[in-house]
Input
Amino acid sequence: MSTRFSGLTPLLAPRSVAVLGASSDPTRISGRPIAYMKSQGFQGGLYPINPNRAEIQGLKAYASIMDVPEVPDVAIVAVASEVAAAAIEDLAKKGVKAVVMFTAGFAEMDEAGAVAQDKMVATARSYGMRILGPNCLGVFDARRSYYATFSSSFDSGWPVPGRIGIASQSGAYGTHLYTLARNRGIGASLCVMTGNEGDVTVGECIGWLAENPEVDVIAVYAEGIREAPGLIAALEVARAARKPVVMQKVGRSELGAKAAKSHTSSIAGDDAVTEAIMKEFGVYRARNSEEMLDIAHTATRKIYPVNNTLGVITVSGGAGVLISDTAESIGLSMPEMPMDAQKRLRELVPFCAPRNPVDATAQVTNDISLVKTFTESMVRDGGYSAVLGFFSMTASSRRWPAIREQLNLVKDENPDRLYALSVIVPPEGRDELEADGWVVHEDPTRAVLAIDAMGRFGEAFAKPAGQPAPAVPAVTLPAVTPTEAEAKRLLATAGIQSAPEAECVDAASAVAAAEKFGFPVVMKILSPDILHKSEIGGVLLDVSDADAVSAGFDTLIARAKAAAPTARIEGVLVAKQLKGGVECILGIHRDPVFGPMAMFGLGGIFVEILKDVVFHRCPFGPDVAEDMIRSIKGAPLLLGARGRKKADVKALADTLSRLSAFAVAAGQRLQSIDLNPVFAMPEGEGAFAVDAVIEVGE
Output
């Protein structure tokens, strides 16, 4: 395995195991791991540690870890929290490299518990030892008969052999997922549950699974991401290895709720940021456990088409409509069959519907050879990357074995496609079809969702490396939040353009600036303490002559003093008023985990009400920026919809990518940036920031 995550191998694939606090009772928390590993034939050393027992569950017991004749790879700690820290130190001194810590009573309890947890983890790290947990349900790998867990899920059965690995922050839900998979006959042999994540994180576990040659697909249950570099590295490894990651991410809290000064921060909640990270690396976000297992199981076929198309053969016209509706709603292409192929099929069954879905009708049960003929035409003439057959209860009829044989002939002759069936069969019938190479779903809509996910994985795996982010000069932020004019000067060093403007300290200089730019102009109060000027009436539009400029200067100063008596007022900003552009918002939000995140959306109601925005981790090149721009629902307004002029998308993308590079160069004191609005002018005329707010922190 690669060196990036191989440090977890003693934890997740150990050769020997010690159990601190081991119990003779196989039903107790500290007795279950021993009972499980003994019953399943764990081949390594198994060392119960208990000073009050000479023998535990038929194994020699040891009074102390120091008495064990070898250095175990991993130790399961199931002792009281009061003695857990001392146990960790003893294990570290022995040279144990990994700990699975069942013991609770740490950060999940209170601040004192968090302090004790941090101290314990620091001790382990000083010895090069890794801790899973504390307060975790552990890990199991059925292929190695390794069960460092006290889950009761094995009372009802053992894992189905397979190549799906599960990583879960929740222990109870992790074993819930495993049990659902087992009950459906889905092979998920390995599951790791991270608990408090005092040390080992779910991201690192994803990385280890991605590097593990015995794992093809990774299923993840996550409540919140605590550590970014490990997760980013893990997702990079998984994508490079063509291993799909399907994640059920729960929790939609807004970390930016208190940062209401920034539009970007108020929209960029924890969930929106995590969604952007998943999209960046091609992680499929499952809406529920059923969908996650459907997709993970389908992915074990290892067929990930880049240009995914679905062909459907059905014995029910109604099912064909349902499948078509589902495919259209998620954007899965179902091209029509070629006309000559349709003609040939109609000659065989005049009342069939051969477009796609291909409704072969119940006639195929009278003439079994038609099953092969119709399906083969779909594969060879239609050229679909995925084929879904809807046969419902036909799969329980006496004619099914012959139909199955015909279907298998087509599949075996064309093995490069993804084949799925929507049928109702008993578990043993499902297992037979799965062994043939079909993915089986009772509900055809679930099959469509899973097939679509395979195409999304294929696109992610095939995506070329992006363009580099623009090079920008070093950024030195001011000590305090700058004025709008200062913010624009800072951004200009990164190549971000603004409309022509001037800072004016009196009415006469304001008139001179306006006459230089040409009327009409925009006038805005200039103050580092008034960030959202429109809220106090601090912006005047369409100021059309010298007298209006002079009066406007006095009006703005008076409004600012009335609304914010203690604010520092540095004058008025006069700017050329741009016409004919599309208003956009570009922003930066500093996420506490992932760092600066860029946001793009259209201005006005699109951001305030509809929140039609997209996020991406900084920095990135113009190609990623353009993908972001084109991905929002309102993109047609920029691309020339209904006779509009096309906006300068290239210039807009350049501005967005430069903003992402500026955000990284600015360092950790940068809290947020709002460029709202940015005018995307007609094609070839550029993009200009009309307003700019840079928020600086400590």
Notes: The first helix runs from residue 9 to 12. Confidence is low (pLDDT under 50) at residues 253-268. The longest strand covers residues 670-680.
